[in-house]
């Protein structure tokens, strides 16, 4: 049962309480408070598929409204190896961007772990215009 709720800015705390009845008497068995943070609405980054991959994978994401999107691939040292989407405005809806495991010059990359970063501007974000950034990890097998 929900014992109480409180909101603090973008965070909401909910306390759950478990009561048990033993020999006709109710008593509190456990209590747990969790913090729920509001997530900016409008942009979802799905896991890459397939992952691990060879020779290519697809990065899927959804936009609830038109937005400026940048999709970049980084190696483990943080070096940009490929830009898959260059900051153009994309329509609302589901999007799928393939990646063939090659760098920006078309050279095949070595087996390993890479990070795909998706930056979105203009979807349910603060007035300051800070981008909404999400990352997923992909593994290339050559």
Second CATH tier, the architecture of the largest domain: Sandwich
With strands numbered from the N-terminus, the spatial order across the biggest sheet is 7-6-9-10
CATH topology of the largest domain: Immunoglobulin-like
Radius of gyration: 21 Å
**Structural class of the secondary elements?**
mainly beta
N/C terminus separation: 51 Å
Helix fraction bin:
under 10%
Instruction: Give the uncertain stretches in residue-range form.
Output: 124-128
User: Biggest β-sheet: count, sense, barrel?
Assistant: 4 strands, antiparallel
Q: Give the percentage of residues in beta strands.
A: over 45%
Please identify the top-level CATH class of the largest domain.
Answer: Mainly Beta
Averaged pLDDT: 82
The overall number of domains is 2
Sum up the overall morphology in one term: elongated
Q: How many helices in DSSP terms?
A: 0
If you had to describe this structure to a student in words, what would you say it looks like?
Residues 124-128 have low confidence and may be disordered. The N and C termini lie far apart (51 Å). The strands form three sheets. Strands 7-6-9-10 form a four-stranded antiparallel sheet, with no helix packed on it. A three-stranded antiparallel sheet has the order 1-2-3, with no helix packed on it. The protein folds into two domains: 2-37, no CATH class; 43-140, Sandwich (Immunoglobulin-like). It has 142 residues and is an all-beta fold. It has no helices and ten strands.
């Amino acid at each position: 049962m929900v014992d109480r709720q409180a909101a603090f800015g973008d965070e909401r705390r909910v306390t759950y309480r478990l009561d048990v009845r033993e020999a006709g008497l109710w008593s509190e068995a456990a209590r747990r408070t969790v913090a729920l943070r509001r997530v900016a609405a409008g942009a979802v980054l799905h896991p890459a598929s397939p992952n691990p991959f060879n020779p290519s994978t697809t990065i899927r994401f959804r936009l609830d409204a038109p937005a400026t999107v940048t999709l970049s691939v980084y190696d483990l040292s943080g070096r940009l190896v490929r830009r898959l989407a260059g900051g153009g405005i994309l329509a609302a809806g589901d999007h799928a961007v393939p990646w063939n495991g090659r760098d920006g010059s078309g050279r095949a990359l070595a087996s390993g772990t890479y990070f795909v970063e998706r930056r979105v501007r203009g979807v349910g974000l603060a007035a300051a215009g800070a981008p909404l950034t999400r990352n997923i990890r992909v593994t290339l097998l050559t």
